[in-house]
């Protein structure tokens, strides 16, 4: 069965070996396995900490949590009751439909609508849909945000917090040269001078108006991330600071880099009754 329904998760299975496991909690993808281009060996492509909570008691430390409607601590007055990274990553989403199921791939759609708990912290009428598409070497994740208000804008930030399983001390991310970024580790704005960005030291960088296509390379691997409408990208690896993260496994920071396409500098002002779509497409090249 290409789409398997478990009590609290959905498993997608591609005929040529790729698979995805998604928790309904947060619509968080917690596993993406894919063959390499030059071999049929199936590898896990996402990092999830062995200390992550997968029981819905806390956002998952790894995989692809969805950040909405604020990134980091809330900045807008109407977001003031929200926690870090908003509520989408810690609400239970509903499976909506299988969008596609053929030899090219399998695609499923999830939805999140408001509920009394969300309404208590965020009164704006909205609906979210998340479309996950699995192909042999590719995972696409698209977030649709609909403003259900007939009269007021919906202001939000959104981001896909992707933990790529890579050797962090070898990996490079490019092209980010000449971009302006906010270095959260130093609380200041900088210009990126490096052609190849690494995460050998504690890195928490928010690149603004980024090129929407990123090459993530290391000795034995190559992954490309493309984005649509997520104009910014965050590169995060805590290095030894990871010891202060309760649900991070010891040394986990050596096994991933977060490359997070998002709209997080400023926010989307979505007019009444309109829809916005942001997407990332991750392709395994090696
Ligand atoms: O610990 P979390 O709430 O999951 O956030 C994890 C990280 O998310 C983003 O990458 C932010 O830029 C970081 O500042 C933050 O530490």
What does this structure look like?
The chain is globular. The chain has one helix at residues 116-121; strands at 3-5, 9-13, 19-23, 28-35, 42-44, 66-67, 94-102, 105-113, 126-134, 138-147, 154-160, 163-165, 172-174, 180-183, 188-191, 203-207, 213-218, 221-228, 232-237, 256-270, 275-284. The model has no long low-confidence stretch (mean pLDDT 97). The protein is built from one helix and 21 strands. Strands 6, 11, 12, 14, 15, 16, 19 and 20 form an eight-stranded antiparallel beta sheet that branches. An eight-stranded antiparallel beta sheet has the order 7-8-9-10-21-18-17-13, with no helix packed on it. β14 and β15 (188-191) form a beta hairpin. The chain has 286 residues and is mainly β. 6-O-phosphono-alpha-D-glucopyranose is lined by residues 59, 72, 84-85, 184, 204, 234, 236, 258, 260. InterPro entries: Aldose_1/G6P_1-epimerase (IPR008183), G6P_1-epimerase (IPR025532), Gal_mutarotase_sf_dom (IPR011013), GH-type_carb-bd (IPR014718).
Quickly count the helices: 1
Q: How would you classify the helix and strand content by structural class?
A: mainly beta
The biggest sheet, with number of strands, parallel, antiparallel or mixed sense and barrel status, is: 8 strands, antiparallel
What is the molecular shape? globular
Radius of gyration over alpha carbons?
A: 18 Å
pLDDT < 50 runs, ≥5 residues = none
The fraction of residues in strands falls at over 45%
